[in-house]
């Protein structure tokens, strides 16, 4: 079914009421920076941020618990609960996502500029306004699918200063006089060096951006696409393995889990799963059991 672009103010009367008399937001771009970030611990689990412009995943949504306007986000922006922003545990910041409420078919774009959600079993935390437009209640637990908008995210990343400069730390490290030797660069190295030096941020601008496309705005427009509802079934996925025996050992340790193969027949992978679960509360209980068994990377997904 072809998606329809809706005016956000026509979705429903409650949404219209919240949109009226809203004071203008303070842009957070003054201190905004591009950041991947170091590993961090939250809720007893370690997370390892990484740059991923092809991420697509399903799960359950939460609503940002700390809705205070004016606080700093993880990449230095100013949080505004009336803007279409969100928090993700591992994506580069900022990034642009297309988020779909699988239960009603609504889609919007959000700017990921913070870390979270803290609640186990939730894959994305939405601002109050983003949740309103998607039809996600404050209690969360709504089935969603998300996908990184690669071109917009690359354009955004290339337009911002970087928070980290690990190359400087390596270059300024002390070294012995005879421990380094100048060698001619391998083919292509000179061009790559020039490309890195051409911009203060990552050299990842899309072709559209380099051709002079409009910059990604700090505040995304309230555009809502309407597609068909396509709710799925809830599963708890523990780990994935390249070896069937390792997967079987983890499934036996958890209890009640099963091993499923996926991927190409010649090089299959194996995932350990529980479910499906008819209710979110049951999936939450199963997730807690799996984490107590020592599988910190376990998550709830929709299939």
Structural notes for this entry:
The chain is an alpha+beta fold and 303 residues long. The chain has two domains: 164 residues, Barwin-like endoglucanases; 69 residues, Sporulation related repeat (Alpha-Beta Plaits), CATH 3.30.70.1070. It is 22% helix and 25% strand. The protein has eight helices and 14 strands. A hairpin with a 4-residue loop joins β6 and β7. The longest helix is centred in the C-terminal third of the chain and has 13 residues. The chain starts with a strand and ends with a strand.
Short précis:
The chain is an alpha+beta fold and 303 residues long.
Write the layout of secondary structure elements.
Blueprint: E1 4-7, H1 13-19, E2 40-42, E3 45-47, E4 56-63, E5 85-87, E6 95-101, E7 106-114, E8 124-126, H2 128-134, E9 142-148, H3 150-158, H4 166-171, H5 189-197, H6 207-210, E10 223-226, E11 234-241, H7 244-254, E12 258-262, E13 269-277, H8 280-292, E14 299-302
Parallel strand pairs: 4-8, 5-7
Antiparallel strand pairs: 1-10, 2-3, 4-9, 5-8, 6-7, 6-9, 7-10, 11-13, 11-14, 12-13
């Amino acid at each position: 079914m072809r998606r329809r672009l809706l005016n956000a103010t026509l979705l429903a009367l409650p949404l219209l009421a919240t949109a009226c008399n809203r004071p203008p937001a303070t842009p957070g771009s003054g201190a905004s920076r591009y950041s991947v970030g170091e590993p961090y611990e939250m809720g007893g689990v370690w997370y390892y941020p990484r740059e991923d412009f092809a991420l697509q995943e399903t799960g359950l949504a939460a609503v940002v618990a700390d809705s205070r306007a004016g606080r700093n986000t993880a990449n230095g922006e100013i949080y505004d609960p009336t803007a279409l922003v969100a928090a993700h545990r591992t994506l580069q910041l900022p990034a642009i996502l297309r988020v779909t409420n699988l239960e009603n078919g609504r889609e919007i774009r959000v700017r990921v500029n913070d870390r979270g959600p803290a609640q186990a079993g939730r894959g994305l935390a939405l601002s109050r306004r983003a949740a309103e437009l998607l039809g996600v209640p404050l209690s969360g637990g709504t089935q969603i699918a998300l996908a990184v908008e690669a071109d917009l995210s690359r354009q955004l990343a290339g337009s911002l200063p970087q928070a980290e400069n690990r190359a400087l730390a390596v270059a300024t490290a002390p070294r012995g006089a005879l421990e380094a030797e100048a060698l001619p660069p391998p083919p292509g190295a000179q061009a790559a060096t020039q490309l890195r030096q051409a911009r203060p941020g990552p050299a990842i601008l899309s072709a559209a951006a380099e051709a002079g496309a409009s910059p990604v705005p700090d505040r995304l427009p309230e555009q809502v696409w309407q597609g068909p509802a396509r709710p799925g079934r809830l599963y708890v996925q523990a780990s994935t393995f390249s070896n069937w025996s390792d997967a079987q050992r983890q499934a036996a340790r958890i209890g009640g889990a099963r091993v499923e193969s996926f991927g190409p027949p010649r090089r299959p992978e194996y995932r350990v799963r529980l479910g499906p679960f008819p209710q979110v509360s049951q999936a939450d209980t199963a997730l807690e059991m799996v984490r107590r068994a020592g599988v910190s990377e376990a998550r709830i997904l929709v299939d």
